Amino acid sequence: MTGSVGEGRYIGVAERRARLALRHRLAGPARAADPEEAAASLVALHGSDPATVYLALGARLADPARTVPDTGRALYEDRTLVRMHGMRHTVFVFPTDLTAVVHASTGLAVAARERATLLKNMAKAGAPDAAWLKEVEESALAVLARRGQATAAELAEDEPRLREQFVYAAGKSYEGVHTVSTRLLRVLGVEGKVVRGRPLGSWTSSQFRWALAPEHPELDPAGAQARLLQHWLTACGPATEADLKWWTGWRVTDVRRALKAIGARPVSLDEGTGYVVAGDEAAPAGPAEPWAALLPALDPTAMGWQQRDWYLAPELRPRLFDYSGNVGPTVWWNGRVVGGWAQRADGEIVWRLLDTDEVGRDAEAAITAEAERLRSWVGTTRVTPRFRTPLEKELSA
């Protein structure tokens, strides 16, 4: 790995992998007792594909047999975890006590753009104006408060105006008909007024109900950015400015202001200057033993940094990522990606090594054990990633 040397104490690849193993709950002794503990360690779990949330937590729980019931409890009964829009306008699962921080630090700016775009599109289509939309919105929120949770179709039973349609991009190659409910609920999601509720089917289902968002205080955006960066850098540091800008979706000026606010310390990485939170400059104790992991598509560890050469060899990426940059299921050995995995139609978990450097019999035995561990709790459920990658499609065929 090459790159210009930055300032501060040098943190090499081996140390970064040791930090990842412990802080992301991947080494055996570091596994979490429950979904809340695992989620707090990761800050955010990608939620675009519902199965990712469960698979990512199951890989990190000491007792994976509890993955489905305990995650369902946390999401839909105790509401200690919440699925909502977050960084880069992506759906994530967050610890509930971070929802106000995420909303103020990343959601407000996106929400303003989303509402303005919806009103502009409706006006171009000759649809009703902003006052009409506000009236429908307030009515829909009242219905949701009364019902508790509801699908868009169920909401429209009580508020028929949600079924209104308008033509988007008339005359363009991408012209389409949009329903008010689809666009409005999306806007309400990024505004922090509604969140994703219980799915209609199993834990892998993409069909879901809506629920009112947990009440939270309105925070100062700059202060919220500092708090979010403190959480993420504690879990994922060291990281470069490029990593931080990519993960948050913020402007570089926002990143630098937040780094200064939390007193982040510079360190030297192979990529240049990185940052850790104050007091985190010392090297951690390494994992107690070698470790293997089978992580799902869009796992927060695999997607945690923009600059990934320290754990993912560039030559492996064409097989493990789709054309939009979404990572597929990955096989890890001692802090680096060495291959990919998939589930076949009969439920078998299959995997293949793409990088065999320093991967011997012990590694293969550990990976085999992880595949069996995964199969044991997934059971009869069939999981197909929402974003298919070349190796995953090949292995699952």
TrEMBL record:
It comes from Streptomyces luteolifulvus. One of its GO terms (molecular function) is DNA binding. The lineage of its organism: Bacteria, Bacillati, Actinomycetota, Actinomycetes, Kitasatosporales. Pfam families: AlkZ-like (PF06224). InterPro entries: AlkZ-like (IPR009351). This is Winged helix DNA-binding domain-containing protein. Keywords: DNA-binding. It comes from the Bacteria. The keyword DNA-binding applies.
